[in-house]
Specification:
- It is a single chain.
- By secondary structure, this protein is an alpha/beta fold.
- It is built from 5 helices and 6 strands, in the order E-E-H-H-E-E-H-E-H-E-H.
- Strand 3 and strand 4 form a beta hairpin.
- Helix 4 crosses helix 5.
- The longest helix has 18 residues.
- The protein starts with a strand and ends with a helix.
- The model has no long low-confidence stretch (mean pLDDT about 100).
- It binds adenosine-5'-diphosphate.
- The site of adenosine-5'-diphosphate has 21 residues, from helix 1.
Length: about 170
Amino acid sequence: MTQIQVIPGDITQFAGDAIVNAANTTLMGGGGVDGAIHRAAGPALYAACEKFHGCPTGEARITSGFALPAKYIIHTPGPVWRDGRHGEPELLANSYRNSLQLTDEYGCQTVAFPSISTGVYAFPLDQAAPIAIRTIREFLRTAQHVQTVTMVCFDPVTEQAYQTALNA
Ligand code: ADP
């Protein structure tokens, strides 16, 4: 039995198998959720990320969770919103799908996502949420290990958008 949950909270405290980081293409840390994850995981995360020499938008890389309660961190740079005509929806779906693919390969059963690209990257929340939920749903149909995917929402507006997409 697979499921999708939407909850309020801070993703760094998620005590499951994996959390996803809304990273940038350098993978060398930044603001928002990326900064929070690097602070909470500790400096060993920075050293681990250095070895990737970056990551293209929509792809994903995996590291240990280091000091976090989660076992693994999946790092994926979501698209920067321009006008919606530069492949942003497809790239956002790629971020979710490739992150889920990696967690599944590593045998994870529980994985948490932040709202990728809807902060500094300015992807409209009302468009991002349905893309995220649809991509997660599709993935769960053929997942080998992943059972529960949790959207951890940092503010009530974000939580409402994902709840609405989930109930649509
Ligand atoms: P992006 O650059 O992909 O837009 P941001 O980090 O700016 O990434 O924002 C993505 C989302 O993550 C926003 O909804 C933001 O409020 C949220 N966020 C920030 N810190 C945390 C956290 N500790 N846990 C969960 N979500 C967070």
